[in-house]
């Protein structure tokens, strides 16, 4: 499977790879600030990101132009997904779907 | 609680605090400060210091060549603009010239001696150390950069001086 530049960028996040993916998914349905993201991700994936992990992933996503701050809401910056971020998310989800399909196929009873 | 939060946020680099400090403070104010959160914040601070993320502005200032260098060598400059690279070049050429001229002047004035000879030998490596302040060391804080570049250059000159002096003694 050919990996694209954007896909590799997300893969380069190391231990922040999964939090970064969850943040992109969280922002896919609208702008959110840090607290709203952690609540959304907790509901979505039953994972509560710590502040260090959350902002480590936000910094990486922002520095690569995958998300951007919208404008201060009091002291809080909501973030939004950029066009590049949406493309990277689509590519990563496509990869994960293919991996999940392969995994399910290998687990199917006919192969045991 | 607010004191602990402030102390933990101070573990992060200054640029990080300026960008995300208030947001993190707000987030921490809305949740219970558990041991897990403490560990997460400390790990996050270590990460922020070790793998500094360039801001979007710094990133857009990079040339494609520099990006390739960052990927190829990993220790290459992050966020070094074209201007920084010119400054680095100026330090390298200018420093080499100045150290060499000072070394020659000392040789002419007081005759052959281990210090001036050491200075002549270390002109280029010491200047290279000074020039790294605006490229390879750019990810570090101003004080750390100053200590590493000037301290490194002084250490090189001293080591070269010692080596020449030992050579004379033998």
Please name the defining characteristics of this protein.
heterodimer; A: 112 residues; mainly alpha; Arc Repressor Mutant, subunit A; B: 170 residues; 9 helices; 76% helix
Write the layout of secondary structure elements.
The complex is a heterodimer of chains A (112) and B (170).
Chain A: H1 5-11, H2 17-27, H3 34-45, H4 51-63, E1 67-69, E2 79-81, H5 83-107
Antiparallel strand pairs in A: 1-2
Helix pairs in contact in A: 1-5, 2-3, 2-4
Chain B: H1 2-9, H2 14-29, H3 35-50, H4 56-61, H5 64-73, H6 82-110, H7 114-121, H8 123-131, H9 142-169
Helix pairs in contact in B: 1-2, 6-7, 6-8, 7-9, 8-9
Explained architecture:
The complex is a heterodimer of chains A (112) and B (170). By secondary structure, chain A is mainly alpha-helical. Helices cover 61% and strands 5% of the residues of chain A. Chain A has helices at 5-11, 17-27, 34-45, 51-63, 83-107, and strands at residues 67-69, 79-81. The radius of gyration of chain A is 15 Å and the shape is elongated. With 170 residues, chain B is mostly helical. Chain B has 2 domains: 2-53; 64-169, no CATH class. Chain B is 76% helix and 0% strand. In chain B, helix 7 crosses helix 9. The radius of gyration of chain B is 22 Å and the shape is elongated. Residues 68-77 of chain B have low confidence and may be disordered. At the A-B interface, helix 3 and helix 4 of A face helix 2 and helix 3 of B.
Report low-confidence residues of chain A grouped into runs of 5 or more. Answer: 1-8
Rounded to an integer in angstroms, the radius of gyration calculated over CA atoms of chain B is 22 Å
Determine the mean pLDDT of chain A: 84
Coarse morphology of chain B: elongated
Low-confidence stretches of chain B: 68-77
Q: Mean pLDDT across all residues of chain B, rounded?
A: 81
How many structurally independent domains of chain A? 1
Strand arrangement in the largest pleated sheet of chain A: 1-2
The tally of strands of chain A reads 2
């Amino acid at each position: 499977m050919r990996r694209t530049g954007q896909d590799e960028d997300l893969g380069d996040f190391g231990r922040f790879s999964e939090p970064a993916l969850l943040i992109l998914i969280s922002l896919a349905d609208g702008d959110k600030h840090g607290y709203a993201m952690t609540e959304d991700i907790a509901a979505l994936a039953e994972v509560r990101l710590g502040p260090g992990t959350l902002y480590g992933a936000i910094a990486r996503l922002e520095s690569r132009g995958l998300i951007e701050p919208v404008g201060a809401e009091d002291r809080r910056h909501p973030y939004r997904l950029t066009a590049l971020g949406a493309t990277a998310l689509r590519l990563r989800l496509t990869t994960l779907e293919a991996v999940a399909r392969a995994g399910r196929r290998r687990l199917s009873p006919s192969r045991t | 609680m607010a004191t602990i939060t402030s102390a933990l946020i101070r573990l992060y680099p200054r640029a990080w605090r300026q960008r995300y400090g208030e947001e993190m403070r707000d987030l921490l104010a809305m949740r219970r400060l558990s041991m897990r959160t403490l560990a997460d914040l400390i790990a996050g601070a270590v990460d922020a210091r070790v793998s500094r993320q360039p801001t979007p502005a710094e990133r857009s200032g990079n040339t494609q060549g520099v990006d390739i260098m960052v990927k190829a060598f990993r220790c290459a400059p992050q966020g070094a603009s074209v201007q920084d690279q010119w400054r680095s070049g100026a330090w390298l050429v200018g420093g080499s010239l100045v150290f060499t001229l000072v070394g020659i002047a000392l040789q002419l004035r007081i005759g052959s001696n281990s210090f001036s000879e050491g200075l002549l030998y270390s002109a280029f490596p010491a200047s290279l150390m000074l020039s790294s302040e605006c490229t390879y060391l750019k990810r570090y804080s101003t004080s750390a950069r100053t200590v590493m570049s000037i301290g490194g250059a002084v250490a090189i000159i001293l080591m070269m001086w010692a080596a020449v002096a030992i050579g004379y003694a033998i």
